[in-house]
Amino acid sequence: MMTARQTSSHFPRAITGMAAEQPPARIVIFIGAPGSGKGTQSSLLSSRYDIPCISTGMILRDEAKKNTPVGFRLRQTMASGALVDDQTVCDAVVSRIRDSYEQGKASLILDGFPRTVSQAKRLNDELKALGIPGPLVIHLDVPDHVLLQRLARRRQCATCGAVYNLASKTSKNGARCQFDGGALVERDDDSEGVVARRLTSYRRETLPVIEYFRKNDSANGIYRRIDGNLEATAIASEVCDLMRFADTAMAA
């Protein structure tokens, strides 16, 4: 596994080439447990189609700089150290989608949103108001035992942040980064206790969102499950097929 900065040059050109036929405008959401490969697939899709991949944190920071009611609320919340409330998060994301739409860029990959069913419903309402199709929700489904193995073997370069899996041959220098020779260390959020808590949180908070999209497929967007235990390039090929043919497949 590799970070967004390192991913694109390490997959076949057929997956990452910039000359790909542009798919229909779509908000894309990757959903999956920690270690399911959401970051890798977001980076590959973004590189292939030149679609911005926007994290919720990035949206909140950008919105906080604006002289708007939402920006003012965010500055107050961030200054106090409190968690950003659900309504403010939704307002910030919706503002970013509207800005992109007005600039003629209706396609976005949303990283970390929606996290709750109420956020998913608000997203659908706003997309309908803008005349944008419901999101393409790609569920990367990976068994728990595989997730635990992946996270236990994941290491990150202490210098540049590139991410590796010790079970693969991504590093030719043993415990050193192949890009800058930095030491590969375990991420704080990959320790056994933290991983267990993250998976528990995922089941509690995210599974209801998956169920919402799955049960309301076609009414509120397009839900598709992909076997996240496949090789990254195989998953990327399926994702690209979905981008091109999801509407046709839904109608079939």
Describe this structure in words.
This protein is of the alpha/beta class and 252 residues long. It folds into 2 domains: 4-52 and 107-245, Rossmann fold (3-Layer(aba) Sandwich); 56-104, no CATH class. It has helices spanning 4-7, 13-16, 38-49, 56-64, 69-80, 86-102, 117-130, 144-153, 192-205, 207-215, 232-251, and strands at 27-31, 53-55, 108-111, 136-141, 154-157, 163-165, 184-185, 222-227. The protein has a 5-stranded parallel sheet with strand order 2-3-1-4-8, sandwiched between helices. Strands 6-5-7 form a 3-stranded antiparallel sheet. Mean pLDDT is 81; it is low at 1-19.
CA radius of gyration is 18 Å
- Between the first and last Cα atoms, what is the distance in angstroms? 35 Å
Work out the helicity level. 40-55%
For the residues shown, what is the average pLDDT? 81
- Count all strands and give the number: 8
Number of domains: 2
At the first level of CATH, the class of the largest domain is Alpha Beta
How large is the count of helical segments? 11
Give me the secondary-structure topology.
Blueprint: H1 4-7, H2 13-16, E1 27-31, H3 38-49, E2 53-55, H4 56-64, H5 69-80, H6 86-102, E3 108-111, H7 117-130, E4 136-141, H8 144-153, E5 154-157, E6 163-165, E7 184-185, H9 192-205, H10 207-215, E8 222-227, H11 232-251
Parallel strand pairs: 1-3, 1-4, 2-3, 4-8
Antiparallel strand pairs: 5-6, 5-7
Helix pairs in contact: 3-11, 4-5, 4-6, 6-7
